[in-house]
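Extended Data, panel c. Modelled sequence:
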Amino acid sequence: MPWVEQLIARGIDAVAVPLIEIAPPADPRSVSEAWAGLADRALVVFVSVNAVERFFAARPAGASWPAGLRAAAPGPGTGASLQSEGVPAAAIVAPAADASQLDSESLWRALRESAWNGRSVLVVRGDGGRDWLIERLVEAGATVEAVAAYRRLAPRLSSEERRHVEAAFAAPAGHAWLLSSSEAIDHLCALDGVAIGPGSRALATHPRIAARARRAGFGAVFEVQPALDAVVACIQSMQP
């Protein structure tokens, strides 16, 4: 995984424990139908890298990204994934590079000055999810539809992944969790035998995730920007 590789390259012992399993959508036909209607859209919002990968994996034979169609990405990872699928960089709208958070609110600040009245927008996401950005676009006059390109499920950890989880909570002073999803915390809490104690430490990439981590029982929660330098600096500051 890119984050793990980048942290290891910076001298940090890092492993990945996937706490959300990404599965195919319940109705794959809906994604194919969304591709057929792209030329009628003014904007397609991709909520994550998973949304990009799953949407383009379902691209019908011969289909291409329409010229002039804009794509919105909440962060640089999603934007890079769009470019790797052939979406021109000039067509991608994203939060400012120095945005304090990479979320729907920051993305809306990049979108709100455009004229949305009567325009058609597609949101590509998982099953369910937060509707805040959809509500803002509708208030601005847009017609918005959402398509589920994947489902998020509780993970099925391998024996090695399970050992990492158990080791982290058995010796919390020597471990820290980098958390980028509130749902991932829910799944972590639901694992059999997991007891998050006051000595457990977590880095959270958004205030909502930090709040969920505190409710889950993490004793020390550090809010950090989802940028490599910020994460590395925070981890290094925790070392004795």
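The chain has two domains: 2-19+156-238, 22-153. This feature is highlighted in the accompanying rendering.
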